[in-house]
Amino acid sequence: MYKYTKAGLSIALMSISFFLMIENKYICCVGGLVSSLLKLPHWSNGSTGIHMPILYFGIPFVFSFAFVGKYAVKDLGLKKRWIFLIFVIAVTSLVATANQGIVIAKSHSKGLLSIAYESSADNLKFSSKDFKITQFDAQLTLKNYSNQKHVFTIKLDSPYFREEGFEPFEIRNLDGSLKKFELAPSESNTFLLNNEQMLITSGKVISDGSSSGICNEVILTSDTGETVRLVWNGFWGVKESTPL
To answer: Where are the alpha helices (DSSP H) in 20-167?
Structure first.
């Protein structure tokens, strides 16, 4: 019985440590959440460099090979192909469980925090002349994970835009009123934004310039004043203001 326990624990260590290093469908990796909870650095150089969870959990993953070799292969006599099969099933089960848990947590988030900015193909292209926006095209895919309908306005922002002197782009109707967007319960929708059918305004625009690339940040505001900032390819949002 003691041999089975050691073999099981060694395979579990190998499976769990590997699971904590791999990317998740909705977040970078679960190991990143674990390191954050333990207040360990997520990156070696602030927000860049080496992804530290690979080191945190890569070390036990490497050592687990020795434990599996001793306790599962040598002492218990398990074939390597059966150990590999158990490993694949364990990791697959962990990933599926984690994904389901993350979706459930998102669906129970309050207000606009239940909306995710989840497309990996969204882009933004604009140009300005004489302090006026002459061209603007953007698309972004938002999904409502809750069972409630949400109505909101949209602003587009980016760290790059801020460095270049732009303020967030606000989407309005052609008559100047704020344009309202909505998502039904569990609905996913790709919004197409352009300056032909909408009025695109910004608090500050440089005289002449252009840019194209990923639409990094989306700011949603509800009728009650709740404001949430969503980051491209990031599942969780950040609340910037609470409802009135």
So the answer is: 30-37, 52-67, 80-107, 159-164
How far separated are the first and last CA of the chain, in Å rounded?
Answer: 61
> Which DSSP letter does residue 139 get?
E
Q: Is 65:18 a contact under the CB 8 Å cutoff?
A: no
Single out the residue of 102, 184, 100 nearest to residue 144, CA to CA.
184
| pTM for the full predicted model | 0.77
Q: Is residue 150 exposed (0-12), middle (13-18) or buried (19+ Cβ within 10 Å)? A: buried
- Residue 192: alpha-carbon gap to chain centroid: 21
Closest listed residue to residue 152, CA positions, set 119, 122, 117: 117
Tens digits of per-residue pLDDT, 194-237?
888 888 887 565 556 666 777 788 999 998 889 999 887 678 88
Across-strand partners of 178?
A: 172
Q: For residue range 50-91, what is the model confidence (pLDDT) as tens digits?
A: 778 888 888 999 999 999 999 888 888 889 999 999 999 999
